[in-house]
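Appendix B, example 12.
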Amino acid sequence: MELLNKATLFSLKKLRIMKHTFKTFLFTAFAFFLLTSIVAQEKFTLPEYTKVQLKNGLTVYLMEQHEVPLIQLTGVFPGGAIFDKKTKSGLANSTATALTLGSKNYTKAQIEEKVEFLGASISTRASLEYAYISSSFMKKDQKEILAIVKDVLLNPVFPKDELDKMMSRRLVEMDQKKESPRAVLGDYYNKFVFGDHPYGNPEEGIKATLETITKEDISAFYKEMYDPKTSAIAVVGDFDTKTMKRDIESLFGKWNSENSPAVNLSEIPKNNESRVLVVNKENATETTFYIGGPGVARNNPDYVGLEVINTILGGRFTSWLNDELRVNSGLTYGARSTFSHYKLGGSFIISTFTANETTEQTIDLALKTYKKLHEKGLDKETLLSAKNYVKGQFPPNYETNSALAGLLTDMFTYNFDEAYINTFSDQVDALTVEKAEKLIENYFPKDNLQFVLIGKASEIAEMAKKYGVVKQVEITADGY
């Protein structure tokens, strides 16, 4: 028995030593992880890349990333909804989508089968300002996938039977989209705020004009807008730069266009009074809304500082807006604020949703919380917390090939350079309370706010008059 007790005591001592050693290991590992994370934040810079311009004017970015045998290609072209004519709203988006419906050497089915077989992806889309192509594939499949990408981009045939099916689907999808207020709120807001300016064009168009778009319209738009001189391609992944440059030149070097896309982007209109758009959705049990005003362009030199301040107001879960509207009052499941950026300007927006009967209470609380930014400003502790959060969130934003390729094409389209990345932490650190107060005064709209409310008009329209001049439309009506 004595021997057994000694053995037990020895085992317990050994176990305690093992536990202590393990705890020490965990603490050391955590400390090392924390230290390396901080160092990574401080030293994070854009990876080395090569920028070249082909003889046809196409700008090409090449960035090697060898961690995994994957490659990402992202292309950007001046074919966004700002180029739509009123009589052909939705043409830009239709053209971008139709690129993958068939090309000179591949049918739609062949494209889909080959891409699926290789576990790759090829997609096209159009935003408000630009059209995009995106492709992700294994290094070993580069030759096959790039051949398809080239043919899709340079030799689309827009087969009528596939176009007809695409248009039918899109018309159905537009009806379905209006069943979700959050899916269409941005379209209503842009149209309300920007009016007839091209930034007011809905990205997907409207049903009345979609039904009139023909194959000839799409072909003409493609020939006019997809021009290498005003386009860029970024390739990021596991490749040799010299070899990839040669391959890209071989594939896209003969792409030419006689046109130079142009659109008259006049000065963004200013709203000189507070206005309210009430979008009646008769069966709505809750109100979804935006409150907003003028924003800034993507290349604004104060972009980083504004991101930090907005983090405090409505850019994270512990933000003022979410704390007041969700955590403290239970009026919503989430509230946020953001800056939407375009090439020549943008919008500042507060967004949330609530039950019909608490709409007025929620709007009032959102406004009260927002006004605190102007009336009370920020203290050092709050600002420091936001700065640490923003710096911590920044590096993971660019961990993937797709994110890096998107950043490179954004640098091309929105006219900023790698200094945004390389000096990001320095810019965050340089933001003081005094500087923040100036940014709040200059960029966070104080007067003439614009409100867009989607909900049951019979319960919210009268109340909405307290916020500004009210205009009412039906969500079932075509367009925005």
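Residues 50-252 form a domain with the Cytochrome Bc1 Complex; Chain A, domain 1 fold (CATH 3.30.830.10). The first strand starts at residue 50 and ends at 53.
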